[in-house]
Design brief:
alpha+beta; six-stranded antiparallel beta sheet
Length: about 575
């Protein structure tokens, strides 16, 4: 059977198909082995008192991330296991699991293994998983209403979500988040720039001194190498002068000079070449060598004339090299790096002047973002306060119809306790978050004359189930949560109130998979899928079995719930009429 809800235009809207498809329980309490093939819509579980219906709910608690205990393992067994198959996972849950390293393709199998030795294990699609991750994703899989330690209605942070959903403020809440993000970004940029500028201000005198020292040193790339070469020449100037003079004398001066002797011999070879032209190349070589020797002698003479020992120049070079070494040690860098450092310092000093102007621009952008965020928060808060009054009226009306006639329900806005403001996110007791400036908490009082108190402090399991049922009836949102489990929702009611509770369950089941245990035939008759739990004793051991009922079997079960021990024809007809009424109502 398909379930649809009419929107404001009267069109049918299909709910999400994300759901719990199958549940397998083995060696769990008095359950030997049970397999539940669950359906969409309203899944009802019935059975005699003590048959083990609550055990199934406890098993679902393990799937949602509850801690397990070896006490739940069936007698004489070493392990208990619970497995659940969820299909058509939403993209957000798919992404979270993939990010955590699990292979997910729209389908999720969770397996919990409890061992008497304490070596409990959790598997997601066959891979080991920590309990912390299961607890995190469990809130998106199963919500259990009725047991204090499991349901989200006791968590105050979910109350704002429910209020926004009731008031249809999702679009404005999204706009609030965008403005808060813009404010956070503007604040981060402003504070970061302020911090950087303040640090630069503190370092300004130091940076200016560094820049002045490096500029005054007049360093040049390659200067150190040039100075070392000049120092080497000056240190050996006498040797260089003497050596060049010796070379000039050997090549050019005196009767034994190589240039003169080579010139004479070249003339003799030239005569021989007149006799034999084969010697002409030799003449050319001798002429070339003679010219080169003459040029070498000239260069030696010029170099010797130029070179001379200058103690003052040598001292200046040594002083300059010592200064360069000092700068290199101080800045722990070579000349090229020091010059690059100088450029960076000058750029930083220049940015100080620009930073003051940038601060003004960023402060203006921040003020605009702050104003926009707080304005949106105030508008959203006003709408929430109006919606809170309306939710109070409608919730009290819904709850009266669910058999709690004297209940008072309130949505209270909580202020932060803080002595001083902390702009821009905390002003006058109001803390700005991506949700706005509101923190809300549901309060109620089920008894006349008693003051309202937070739900977490006074609500019983049955009261919580009916409160959540009323809320879900008012806030029909196809959800992010696969399965809603209502326990004790029919506690202390009957007759007309039971019919109203049943209709509320149907209403919620149009957009969520709902599982509930009931003792009331009025609720059992409207099930989309009906399961009966019964207990048997075989060979001295107790076994719990669960069976999905066919339509004829459903009539018999509803008749049993109507008539008790003795089931008459009249009771059977009554049960048949109740089930047929449900079928006709669903079309």
């Amino acid at each position: 059977m398909k379930f649809c809800v009419a929107n404001s235009n009267g069109e049918n809207v299909k709910p999400a198909v994300f759901m719990l498809r199958e549940l397998r329980i083995k060696n769990f309490a008095i359950i030997d082995e049970v397999v539940l093939q669950l359906g969409r819509g309203l899944n009802i579980i019935t059975g005699e008192t003590g048959a083990g219906k609550s055990i199934i709910l406890n098993a679902l608690g393990l799937i949602s991330g509850e801690r397990g205990s070896s006490d739940i393992i069936r007698h004489q067994e070493e392990e208990a296991t619970v497995e659940a198959l969820f299909d058509t996972l939403p993209p957000s849950l798919n992404a979270k699991l993939c990010q955590a390293g699990f292979d997910v393709d729209g389908e999720l199998v969770i397996k919990r293994v409890l061992n008497r030795s304490g070596k409990n294990r959790i598997y997601l699609n066959g891979s080991l998983c920590p309990l912390s991750l299961l607890a995190e994703i469990g809130t998106a899989l199963v919500h259990i209403y009725g047991q204090h330690e499991h349901h989200t209605l006791l968590q105050a942070e979910t109350h704002l979500n429910l209020l926004d959903a009731f008031a249809d403020l999702d679009a404005k809440a999204k706009s609030m988040k965008e403005r808060f993000d813009a404010l956070s970004c503007a604040w981060d940029r402003l504070t970061e720039t302020r911090d950087t500028l303040e640090k630069q201000r503190r370092e300004k005198a130091f940076l200016e001194a560094q820049a002045e020292e490096i500029a005054g040193s007049r360093l040049r790339p390659g200067e150190e190498e040039e100075l070392r070469s000049s120092k080497n020449i000056l240190a050996h100037s006498e040797k260089l002068h003497q050596g060049c003079r010796e070379g000039e004398e050997m090549l050019y001066e005196g009767d034994a000079a190589l240039v003169g002797r080579l010139g004479k011999y070249a003339g003799k070879v030239r005569e021989l070449a007149a006799i034999d032209e084969g010697l002409k190349p030799t003449v050319e070589l001798l002429d070339s060598s003679w010219a080169q020797l003459q040029e070498a002698a000239s260069q030696l003479r010029r170099y010797a004339d130029r070179i001379h020992f200058d103690p003052r120049s040598l001292e200046q070079i040594e002083d300059r090299l010592a200064e360069i070494q000092r700068l290199k040690r101080k800045y722990n860098a070579d000349i090229e790096d020091i010059l690059r450092m100088q450029a960076g310092i000058e750029e930083t000093l220049a940015s100080l002047e620009q930073g003051e102007e940038q601060i003004v621009v960023l402060e203006r952008a921040f003020e605009e973002a702050r104003q926009a965020a707080w304005d949106m928060a105030e508008k959203l808060s006003h709408e929430r306060q109006r919606a809170a009054k309306k939710l109070k009226r409608e919730m009290e009306r819904e709850i009266r119809g669910l058999g709690m006639p004297e209940t008072i329900f309130e949505v209270r806005f909580v202020r932060q306790d803080k002595e001083t403001d902390d702009p821009p996110f905390f002003i006058s007791g109001k803390k700005l978050t991506e949700r706005g400036m509101d923190q809300v908490e549901f309060h109620f009082s089920p008894n006349p004359g008693e003051p309202v108190k937070p739900l977490a402090k006074i609500a019983s399991g049955g009261e919580l189930s009916r409160l959540m049922l009323a809320l879900k009836a008012l806030v029909l949102t196809p959800g992010v949560v696969s399965t809603l489990l209502f326990d004790e929702v029919d506690a202390g009611i009957g007759g007309r109130v039971a019919e109203i509770v049943g209709k509320k369950l149907q209403q919620v089941a149009a957009l969520h998979q709902v599982i509930t245990v009931t003792h009331l035939p009025q609720i059992a008759a409207i099930a989309d899928s009906h399961y009966v739990v019964h207990k048997e004793v075989e060979k001295g051991r107790t076994f719990t079995h669960v069976k999905r009922l066919s339509e004829p079997e459903r009539v018999s079960e509803v008749a049993r719930m109507l008539g008790g021990v003795k089931i008459t024809e009249k009771t059977l007809r009554h049960a048949e009429e109740m089930i047929e009424a449900r079928i006709k109502a669903n079309g």
